[in-house]
What we know:
This protein has helices at 2-5, 17-41, 45-70, 74-82, 87-122, 141-165, 170-196, 200-232; strands at residues 123-126, 129-132. The chain has 236 residues and is mainly α. The protein has 2 domains: 15-136 and 199-236; 138-197. It has a two-stranded antiparallel ribbon. Strand 1 (123-126) and strand 2 form a beta hairpin. The two termini are 24 Å apart. Residues 37, 40-41, 43, 45, 48-49, 52, 112, 115-116, 119-120, 123, 130-132, 204-205, 208-209, 211-212 line the site of protoporphyrin IX containing FE.
Amino acid sequence: MKELLEQPGFLAPSGTFGADLSYLLAVVFTVMFLIAWVLAKKGLGTQHHNLIFLSMVSMLIYFIGYYYARQLGVLTLEGKEGFGGPQDIYDNIFIPTLTTHLILVCLGLILSIYMIFQGFRACDKIEGNYILQRRELIADPKIFKSTMIIIGGIWAGNQLVITFIRDKSFAASLAWAIIFGIIALVVYLEKFIEKSIPDGARRHKLLGRATMIIFSLILVTSTLVYLMLYVIYPKI
Ligand code: HEM
């Protein structure tokens, strides 16, 4: 697999197959999200939901495959090894763009998972169609509590597996603790979001638009990183 990903690319002369494929898929997923936005704007709630669902599932499969094939932090490593431009461009343009890109990817992933759950909660299925409901949407305290307990339980189970079965480093435990911490924080943040935008339909539209804008910015920043690494400043 690694050998295949390191083969010459098909988009830019100095790109690798892995980089080109991941860039192409990033474009496809973002465009799918943006089409889903257009569908929502046209009032086609069910088609919007189906496309979002399809994009999310394919994106997750891709991320997991990518993680196993190349390990996390690939872009950063590739940046160090693959950037052939001047040092000041690397420090002042490349690294800030790459950092912004990675922050947006994390934010986009968190927000889109949140939005999927929020979408189901804010909609009623009427005659087979998802319709957003203009009503106060507050999490049931019991469901809220059990969600937190389930997150804590999965984290503890995962921690036991990585410590005693897979014998992973402290850094791996810390990374997982941060990931689960973020998930718990997002669930907790819902309490504040509920207060500031009580209407579920309005919340879905406002946060949904923010998520879509983040996805568009992810496309812009990944294009810039790709161009800098493989078109403008490739390492020869
Ligand atoms: C990543 C997840 C999601 C995002 C980013 C998202 C985003 C959006 C946005 C931006 C709008 C408003 C469009 C506009 O007026 O500008 C919208 C509307 C809507 N969404 Fe979602 N959505 C997501 C998931 C879902 C899910 C899972 C459902 C259903 C279960 C759903 C059902 C709807 C419905 C019914 C509308 C209203 C369409 C209309 O105006 O008639 N969404 N969504």
